[in-house]
Design brief:
Blueprint: H1 2-11, H2 18-25, H3 29-41, E1 45-49, E2 53-58, H4 65-69, E3 81-87, H5 90-99, E4 107-117, E5 123-126, E6 131-138, H6 149-166, E7 171-173, E8 177-180, E9 183-194, E10 199-209, H7 226-230, H8 236-257, H9 264-270, E11 277-281, E12 287-294, E13 300-303, E14 309-312, E15 318-320
Helix pairs in contact: 2-3, 6-8
């Protein structure tokens, strides 16, 4: 009931009477007071005025289950929510839940991730209270070769959410990394369980540098955080819930056509590589060119010096351009 009370307090700028809360949730005043007291212990500032009721005046920077549930505005994305104070990898945790039958849209959020995974086996560590570490489970009725496009869908959702909440001009380095001023803010890793004919489930994990203020020496010139860019901490819960709202919208569009045809324009508006010189590190041979957007399959279109256009498939090759971290 904690999240429901938080939702009710957030919905009203003025006071909400204890009697109104009792009637809304079918509980006693004592039960309401117990939840209010627990919320205060967790750092929420809640005024209580006789004959007026309760009013939320301040909230802590937390990504707890109650906090996120009280702010989600989705039909299914994140509605089955699991919050973990500490986990080795949110992706691994979601995969275990998936094997146990967890429903489509299950979201796992962790405050601390000790062994998060990045591309090519890199470790993505997220210290307590500083970053966003989340993974969502989806069960799309698509062929396995189409699942990689969900990485682009998630990158779009994260970019839009960060931009909306912070006002920063965040872009996507194809296929999914968030970047600003030439530095990496976020990465996404998609993992799949499938057979030849179909997908059992897809797990999409995203890590965002939210309130990190220091990076190791080797990353200082390659990575940044939202706090470093803004000069003040960001509301991690707002970003997570807004990301889920965008993800649900973009996912539904993707499933309608099972490609990026309904999302190309929006994606290319966010594409940092657009009309930029890139270097494609293909095992068959490196080559350069100008990135001119993506096609309906999410492949990066690169125009070579001879005028020919090649399609780069996410996951098969690396693309280097104005950013050096990749």
């Amino acid at each position: 009931m904690k999240s429901e009370i938080l939702s009710a307090l957030r919905a009203q700028k003025d006071y909400v009477s204890g009697q109104e809360l009792c009637g809304q949730f079918g509980v006693t005043r004592a039960a309401v007071w117990k939840e209010i007291r627990q919320l205060r212990e967790e750092g929420y500032e809640i005024e209580a005025v006789p004959n007026k009721g309760y009013r939320l005046t301040a909230a802590p920077d937390t990504v707890s289950g109650a906090e996120l549930k009280s702010r989600l505005e989705t039909a299914w994305a994140g509605q089955n929510l699991v919050y973990l104070d500490t986990v080795d990898s949110t992706n691994d945790y979601v995969k275990k839940l998936a094997e146990q039958g967890a429903p489509h849209g299950t979201l796992v959020v962790a405050d601390y991730q000790s062994g998060g995974k990045g591309r090519r086996g890199r470790t993505w560590i997220t210290p307590h209270g500083t970053t966003i570490a989340m993974s969502i489970l989806v069960r799309p009725q698509i062929r396995p070769e189409k699942a990689s496009m969900l990485t682009l869908v998630t990158g779009m959702a994260a970019a839009e959410a960060v931009g909306q909440i912070t006002g920063l001009d965040v872009k996507i380095k194809w296929p999914n990394d968030l970047v600003i001023h030439g530095k990496k803010l976020s990465g996404t890793l998609t993992e799949m369980s499938a057979e030849m004919e179909g997908v059992h489930y897809v797990v999409i994990g995203t890590g965002i540098n939210a309130n990190i203020t220091e990076f190791p020496e080797e990353l200082k010139d390659l990575a940044s955080s939202l706090q470093l860019e803004l000069g003040h901490p960001v509301d991690r819960g707002a970003i997570i819930c807004t990301c889920m709202k965008y993800f649900e919208n973009y996912y539904e569009k993707f499933i309608t056509t099972q490609d990026m045809s309904l999302l190309i324009d929006e994606y290319q508006r966010l594409l940092a590589n657009m009309d930029r010189q890139v270097r494609v590190l293909d095992p068959a041979g490196e080559y350069g060119g100008i990135a001119i957007g993506i096609d309906e399959q999410g492949q990066l279109l690169v125009e070579k010096e001879d005028g020919s256009i090649t399609r780069v498939y996410a996951g098969e090759v690396s693309v280097r351009g104005i950013y050096q971290y990749c």
